[in-house]
From TrEMBL:
It comes from Nelumbo nucifera. Gene3D superfamilies: Nucleoside Triphosphate Pyrophosphohydrolase. Residues 54-207 form the Nudix hydrolase domain. Keywords: Hydrolase. Its cofactor is Mg(2+). GO terms for molecular function: hydrolase activity. The lineage of its organism: Eukaryota, Viridiplantae, Streptophyta, Embryophyta, Tracheophyta. InterPro entries: NUDIX_hydrolase-like_dom_sf, NUDIX_hydrolase_dom. This is Nudix hydrolase 14, chloroplastic isoform X2.
Amino acid sequence: MQGVKGILTPGDMSLKQVLIQGVDMFGKRVGFLKFKADILDKETGKKIPGIVFSRGPAVAVLILLESEGETYAVLTEQARVPVGKFILELPAGMLDDDNGDFIGTAVREVEEEIGMHLNLDDMVNLTALLDPSTGGRVFPSPGGCDEEISLFLYRSRVDSETISKLQGKETGLREHGELIKVHVVPYDKLWRATADAKALTAIALYEMARREGLLPP
């Protein structure tokens, strides 16, 4: 909030207090944080809504595999307790360290959730194509959560056997409660096959970048 483009920087608002309401630890580090920030608009004297679920930065990867003239997207299916449903979504995960290694985290998540090894040099940061004023990331729910997501694109040519082996594959880190099933979906049907905001945002960025010739060959 006190950064270059933070809401407190112009001086029109003031922070009175922060009340920590809940903490979930991931081992020895803070995983999730729930707090309430009392922020006043100086002109009106009114409080700005400030209930926050803090989980930090994350990454997701749109994997497109071309096989026998068809392009496929690779998704994961997981039980998502907050929405009470099984969701088809892009392989994704939180940044595990403080080094800011977004690409490395993305590659690691794909290995854990899909069982594929991705070449770092073939990763394209789609969110980096956004205007610099955005910070180069997307915010799926800025009204209540600080999560900011970097979306990556990975494209490769594979044989039909690879597609068959991926379809229905069971993966995930069982010790972390990850019970994941892999799904391979024709890319042209992807936008109707998922309610995952990460996937739909990645499709939009990919299509616009492709239309404007911003993607590497």
